[in-house]
Structures are given as structure tokens and as C-alpha cells.
């Protein structure tokens, strides 16, 4: 299947030293409480449009073992594989290129959600310039110590089994059939949502967006559908407890066959490589090979832990979508003892499709003494009032002024298109 791709950004160069050795050194030095990462993958191809990325060893600062982080991703392509291949090869670099160099770990983690938004949009724009019509889901998981950040468009779900028996969803399914908010957004931006019409007026299948007939409301690529099918990811950042946890990232070939909790349960207690195989096997047993089926299992293991998974508290074994321990309360309004032990801390969550809300107002837009740097594509431009997004030439009179960071002309047009502020067509080949 897919092979690993070498990074171009020097900050995420391939390792000189194996991960296990690095972590072993840190543990022996007694200075680090960083967990270790073990992972496995498995899958079956039906159409050959699923791709994945395994990058367990990346560095924020080149050559500094203390700046280690890991990245795992799944791209489930449709209408051809080229968007999935493109995202696999370029998405991570685009995300990393928007994070300032030389900042500390905390700042880096704080900058990550915005960088993920910018990187996804940039990858989408670049792919669309190629004029190809395929599209892809993208679920990108960044693990730094106990902090897990997940960005996703589409329906390649990522779940967290926090090993105290709670299974949580770290992504949102951007499916028109199931996501009312997304249906409303697409409709408000000029898309039509409906089922496939057979001759005779009979409607079949899931809700789709027209033109194009896509079931997803967000993706990378898809040049031939409306621009309200946006690449702006849902982003969630959590901090695991010292007990660690297991991530299961998979394409819909898994999730259409197995509910999240069943997938987690099916592989508990097994090492990651075996766990991934078992989840795939279980999905195929239930539904057969109807679609590309890809599964990554990533274990985040405490440094002093020699076994894969501690025993499970059965009574807590409930699937709680978007709910974490801190929200579990007893009658007195205080967290229960059980739920506060090993609770996952939610650091960040945002799923809005509005770039202004995602890029924030406080990014420094003035850099290089007088030059503007686009918050999405990172292109520098000399300040010129004609180029400022505030003095847009394409806003309808009803639009309020943009209050986000500086965007170059192309990225501003992209933003307007995604928000339905200009008629479809124009720069994209259709
Ligand atoms: Zn730009």
C-alpha cells in the first residue's frame, strides 16, 4: 500500500536515532515523563483510494530529541486517488510551514490548531490548481507527549480509548446525512442538499450536495463540486492522563461496519499492530469488503508501563461522544471520584467553517518590517492598501469587514468562495 513520504521541512526531518532509543535515553536520564508511542496499521483495498501516513518521529527543532512529536493520518479518497496522494505528500508540510520557528513547546501546541486550519486550506487550494477532480477526507493526528491534536475533514473518524473504559470521539463526521449544522451551512452558502433522483422521481441513498453529488460536506480537493464543500477542519486538542490511551484512526470502511465502542472493545489488551488487524478483520466479518478499509492503532504508553493496556473498569465502559471526565458530575455538581481519575482534559475544540473564527484576530500580520505575510499560504507581500483584505473588491455591500489576519488576494478569494460570497466558478477549472 502507501509508503512513507520524506518531509521537506527541515523541522520534521527523519530521525538519526530510533524512537525507542531516544525515549529510552530520556527515561534513563529521569528527566522526561514523555510517553512512548507504539503503532500498527492494517487494511484492505477495494478501490485503492485509501492512503495513510505514519511519521512517528518528527522534531519541532531539528536534531533536538526533546522536541519530538509524532504524526499519523488517514486520507480516504473518492473519485480517484490523486487528492489522497497529494494530501499525504503535502498536508503535513503545509501545516508545519505556518508555525513560527524557534518557539517553545507550549506556544507550539497553542499555535497548532490555527496552523492546521491554514495548512488544510493551503493544501486544498494547491490541489485544486492542478485541475483534477478527485477529493479526499483527511484526518491528521499530532501527538506531543500527552497532548493529542486531531484535525479532520470528512468522515475518517479518530476515537480515543482512554483506558479507564471511556471511548471518546475526537472528530466530527462531516456527512450531510448526519450533520444538520453542515446541511444548513451548505444550503446557506448556495448548495443544494438532496438525495439521488432516479427516473420516476424515486429518491435513493444518503443526502448529497448538488452540484457534484458528494455525501461529505468538507474535504480536500473536489474541484468539480461547489466551493462550500470546504477544507476547514474540525480541530480538537486533548491532554491524556498519565495512564495514556489508545487512538483508533480509520476510514469509513471500518466505521460503517463497527460502532466506535465496539471497535475499541474488539482490540483491547492487544498490541497495536495486532489490534489494527483485528479491527479490520472484525469490520470485514460484519459487513464484507464493501469499501476501502484502513485502520491505524496508536498507543500512547506511560514511560513506566511495561504492558500495553491496564485492566478496564467495566462499569465505566460507555461511549461518550465529545464528553470527558471533567463534564461528568454527580448530583452535588462535583466530579465523581471515578471520572476524575484518569480523566482526559479537553484543551481546545473548534469546528466552525468561518475562517475569521478559526484564524483569530491576534496573529501578527506585520512581519519583515512592512511586509504582510498571508496567514494561509504564508506568501509575503509588500503592504499595499489594494491588497488588504479589508478593502475587498469582491464583498457584496452587506458583508461586514474582515477582522482576521492578513490574507493575500488569492486566499481572500478562496475565503469568499467558501462562504458563498461570490458566484461559483472563476479560478477553478470545472
Ligand atoms: Zn495567501
From TrEMBL:
<dbReference type="InterPro" id="IPR036457">
    <property type="entry name" value="PPM-type-like_dom_sf"/>
</dbReference>
<dbReference type="GO" id="GO:0004722">
    <property type="term" value="F:protein serine/threonine phosphatase activity"/>
</dbReference>
<keyword id="KW-0904">Protein phosphatase</keyword>
<dbReference type="InterPro" id="IPR001932">
    <property type="entry name" value="PPM-type_phosphatase-like_dom"/>
</dbReference>
<protein>
    <recommendedName>
        <fullName>protein-serine/threonine phosphatase</fullName>
        <ecNumber>3.1.3.16</ecNumber>
    </recommendedName>
</protein>
<keyword id="KW-0479">Metal-binding</keyword>
<dbReference type="Pfam" id="PF00481">
    <property type="entry name" value="PP2C"/>
</dbReference>
<keyword id="KW-0464">Manganese</keyword>
<comment type="similarity">
    <text>Belongs to the PP2C family.</text>
</comment>
<keyword id="KW-0460">Magnesium</keyword>
<dbReference type="InterPro" id="IPR015655">
    <property type="entry name" value="PP2C"/>
</dbReference>
<feature type="domain" description="PPM-type phosphatase">
    <location>
        <begin position="50"/>
        <end position="300"/>
    </location>
</feature>
<keyword id="KW-0378">Hydrolase</keyword>
<dbReference type="GO" id="GO:0046872">
    <property type="term" value="F:metal ion binding"/>
</dbReference>
Amino acid at each position: 500500500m502507501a509508503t512513507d513520504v520524506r518531509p521537506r521541512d527541515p523541522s520534521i526531518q527523519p530521525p538519526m536515532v530510533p524512537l525507542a532509543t531516544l525515549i529510552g535515553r530520556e527515561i534513563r536520564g529521569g528527566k522526561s515523563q514523555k510517553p512512548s508511542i507504539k503503532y500498527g496499521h492494517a487494511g484492505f483495498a477495494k478501490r485503492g483510494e485509501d492512503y495513510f501516513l505514519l511519521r512517528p518521529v518528527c522534531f519541532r527543532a531539528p536534531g533536538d530529541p526533546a522536541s519530538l512529536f509524532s504524526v499519523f493520518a488517514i486520507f480516504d479518497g473518492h473519485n480517484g486517488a490523486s487528492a489522497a496522494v497529494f494530501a499525504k505528500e503535502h498536508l503535513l508540510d503545509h501545516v508545519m510551514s505556518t508555525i513560527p520557528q524557534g518557539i517553545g513547546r507550549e506556544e507550539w501546541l497553542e499555535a497548532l490548531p490555527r496552523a492546521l486550519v491554514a495548512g488544510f486550506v493551503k493544501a486544498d487550494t494547491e490541489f485544486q490548481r492542478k485541475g483534477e477532480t478527485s477529493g479526499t477526507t483527511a484526518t491528521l493526528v499530532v501527538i506531543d507527549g500527552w497532548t493529542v491534536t486531531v484535525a479532520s475533514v470528512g468522515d475518517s473518524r479518530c476515537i480515543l480509548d482512554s483506558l479507564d473504559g471511556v471511548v471518546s470521539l475526537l472528530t466530527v463526521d462531516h456527512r450531510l446525512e448526519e450533520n444538520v449544522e453542515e446541511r444548513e451551512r451548505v444550503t446557506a452558502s448556495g448548495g443544494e442538499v438532496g438525495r439521488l433522483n432516479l427516473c420516476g422521481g424515486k429518491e435513493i441513498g444518503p443526502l448529497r450536495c448538488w452540484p457534484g453529488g458528494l455525501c461529505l460536506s468538507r474535504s480536500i480537493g473536489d474541484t468539480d463540486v461547489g466551493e462550500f464543500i470546504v477544507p476547514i477542519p474540525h480541530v480538537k486538542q486533548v491532554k491524556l492522563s498519565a495512564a495514556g490511551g489508545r487512538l483508533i484512526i480509520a476510514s469509513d470502511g471500518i466505521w460503517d461496519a463497527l460502532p466506535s465502542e465496539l471497535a475499541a472493545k474488539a482490540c483491547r489488551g492487544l498490541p497495536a499492530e495486532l489490534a489494527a488487524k483485528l479491527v479490520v478483520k472484525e469490520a470485514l466479518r460484519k459487513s464484507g469488503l464493501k469499501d476501502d478499509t484502513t485502520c491505524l492503532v496508536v498507543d500512547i504508553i506511560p514511560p513506566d508501563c511495561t504492558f500495553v493496556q491496564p485492566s478496564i473498569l467495566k462499569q465505566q465502559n460507555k461511549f461518550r461522544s465529545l464528553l470527558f471526565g471533567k463534564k461528568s458530575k454527580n448530583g452535588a455538581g462535583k466530579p465523581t471520584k471515578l471520572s476524575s481519575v484518569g480523566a482526559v482534559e479537553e484543551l481546545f475544540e473548534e469546528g466552525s467553517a468561518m475562517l475569521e473564527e478559526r484564524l483569530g484576530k491576534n496573529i501578527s500580520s506585520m512581519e519583515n518590517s512592512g511586509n504582510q505575510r498571508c496567514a494561509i499560504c504564508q506568501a509575503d507581500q509588500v503592504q499595499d492598501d489594494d491588497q488588504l483584505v479589508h478593502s475587498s473588491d469582491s464583498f457584496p455591500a452587506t458583508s461586514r469587514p474582515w477582522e482576521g489576519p492578513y490574507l493575500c488576494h488569492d486566499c481572500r478569494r478562496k475565503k469568499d468562495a467558501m462562504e458563498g460570497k461570490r458566484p461559483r466558478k472563476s479560478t477553478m477549472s470545472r
